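Response to reviewer comment R2.3. The reviewers asked that we include at least one raw input/output pair. We reproduce the pair for Cell envelope integrity protein TolA here without editing.
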Amino acid sequence: MTDATPYTVPKEPGRWRAITLAALVHLALLVFLWIGIRWQNETPVTIEAEVWSPQVREAAPLPEPPTEPQPEPQPVIKETPPQVIERPVEKPELKQPDIALEQEKKRKAELEKKRLEEQRLAELKEKKRLEEQRLAELKEKKRLEEERLAQLKQKQDAEDKRLEKEKSEKAALAKKAAEDKKRKQDEADAKLLAKMRDEDMRRITGGVTGTGGSGDAPKSQGGRGDGSYAQRVAAKIKSNITFNTPEGMDGNPAAEFEVNLLPDGSVAGIRKRKSSGIPGFDEAVGRAIEKSQPYPKDKTGSVPSSFIGIHKPKDQ
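Raw output as returned:
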């Protein structure tokens, strides 16, 4: 209820029944009075009454006007009308305007608070749904990326294996070709070396060309065999070779040197004609040739102008 609403008394239960009963009682009283007056042949007297409350009260008797003596009438028995018990009207408890307004404000505030809370929960729910959707999309994207990388790695591994196989095949072919080439070269070198050894032995044993004569023009003296000279020169050089032959060395490669001598037996020049393939051994032979000078004279009393020496690591 607000200030603009007029105050109304609530309807009392049984009100119309009480009014109807009061009206019937009044009507019965009027009929009774009318009969009594008519029975006495009296002039009807108008009765005026004002009802001030719902309770029915007995009207006061009017003063009798002076009349001529009349026969004594029969006593009138007055009926007592039933008393109408009026129920107390329950007055509704009126709320003070400020309390009602405060309660209304409180109710609206609670409704607004409830609405805001529901809105907040709905927003949180929607936010959670969107976050779950985002995470699901990221997970799917990650899965696809991992699958793509796995496929790429698989292709790369297959390509690496193919290249490795191709490389191995090429290396095997190259190794075989190199081995074949080396084998052929070794065979050719062995044949050449044997041929040169035979020629040198024939030359050394048959006579060393070139003697230490006067002037720059050497003299050629053939037909003078001195096999012991070659052995002495070879033994002298061999004694000065310092080299440790590696264990497990395959073969016995030869190093071939041509040595030019001066008339006094000193070394004029050294030329390596063929390497043994072992640099350390080749250097050791070169140092031994330098260390072995002066070289001795042959049986003719002169120093050969040059000689060719063949040396092998396992023969030392």
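The chain is about 50% helix and 5% strand. Residues 223-315 form a domain with the Fusion Protein Consisting Of Minor Coat Protein, Glycine Rich Linker, Tola, And A His Tag; Chain: A; Domain 2 fold (CATH 3.30.1150.10). Further pairs are available on request from the corresponding author.
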